[in-house]
Design goal:
two-stranded antiparallel ribbon, elongated, single chain
Length: 74
C-alpha cells in the first residue's frame, strides 16, 4: 500500500467521523439517553453548571474505535 492510499483512508475516516458527529449534534434531542447516562457528571453551582459526560464519552469512543478498526482492516 502506498502512502497516498493511507492518506486517502485517513481522510475518509476523518470525514466519516465528522459526518457522524454532525448528525449526532443535529439529532441529539431525538437520541434517547445520550448525555443522560449514569456516570455523566453534572455539577450545578451558583451561576454556573459544569457538565462532564463521562459515560457518554466512553461509549462514543468505543463506537468510533470499532468503526475505525473496521475501516483499517487489511
Amino acid at each position: 500500500m502506498s502512502s497516498m492510499d493511507a492518506v486517502g483512508k485517513l481522510l475518509l475516516g476523518v470525514g466519516a467521523f465528522l459526518v457522524l458527529l454532525g448528525l449526532l449534534i443535529i439529532f441529539k434531542d431525538r437520541i434517547p439517553y445520550v448525555g443522560r447516562l449514569p456516570g455523566d457528571i453534572v455539577i450545578r453551582g451558583k451561576g454556573f453548571t459544569l457538565y462532564f459526560p463521562l459515560a457518554t464519552a466512553i461509549i462514543i469512543s468505543m463506537i468510533v474505535s470499532i468503526i475505525f478498526s473496521l475501516l483499517w482492516r487489511k
